[in-house]
Amino acid sequence: MVLYHARYLEFGGLVFGVGYRYGWDAVKVFFVLSGFVIAYVAETKSNSLPLFFRDRLSRLYSVVVPAILVTCIADSLGH
């Protein structure tokens, strides 16, 4: 997805070969895979609501914190 969005003029209009053409397809694949993961987790894990929220927040935390850090660094470099 990064390559798909990097092709926009607002982001410098970079072209990275043919990989950037498949942004919409990547979104579809992501949602299909997410559906399988959600179904698996709902079926096999987290038997109670507190456990579900604990597990969910731990998965979010491991992605959100690095994403915020990378965004802040990229924003600083962009100015």
Structure description:
The protein is mainly α. The chain has two domains: 1-44; 47-79. Helix content is 72%, strand content 0%. The protein is flat. The protein starts with a helix and ends with a helix.
Largest sheet: none
Low-confidence stretches at least 5 residues in length (pLDDT < 50)? none
- Principal-axes shape call: flat
Oligomer: single chain
Short summary:
This protein has 79 residues and is mostly helical. 72% of the residues lie in helices and 0% in strands. The chain is flat.
SSE map:
Blueprint: H1 2-6, H2 23-44, H3 49-78
Main features:
79 residues, mainly alpha, 2 domains, flat
